[in-house]
Amino acid sequence: MQVNISGHQLDVTEAMKNYVNDKFAKLERHSDKITSARVVMSVEKLKQKIDATILIAGGEVVANSEHEDMYAAIDLLVDKLDRQLIKHKEKLLDRNKGAVEH
Description:
Order of helices and strands: EHEEEH
Largest sheet: 4 strands, mixed
GO molecular function: ribosomal small subunit binding
Number of domains: 1
Shape: elongated
CATH class: Alpha Beta
Subunit structure: Associates exclusively with 100S ribosomes, which are dimers of 70S ribosomes.
Structural class: alpha+beta
GO cellular component, one term: cytosolic small ribosomal subunit
Family: Belongs to the HPF/YfiA ribosome-associated protein family. Short HPF subfamily.
Organism: Thiopseudomonas alkaliphila
C-alpha cells in the first residue's frame, strides 16, 4: 500500500512517517484490496489532528482523530480505521453469503 503523508502547519519528521507506515502496514491484514492511503497531520492550538483516507476496492474509508500527542492521535486513528475495515470486510462477506444461499 502506498501511504502519502503530509503536514499542514507542521513539519512531518522521519520518525512520524515511519510510525505511520508501521501502523498502516498492520491494516493490510484485513484486506489486500487497499490501494493507497492519504494522511494529513496538522496542529490546531493545543490539539494534534490527523486525517486519513484509505482507498479500497469498492470505496474509501475515512477517519480522523485529535489528541494532545501526535503519536496518540495516530494510534486512535489506526484503531478507528481498523474497526471500519473489519466492518467493511464483514459487509462484503455477508453480501457474498446472501448470494450463495439463493
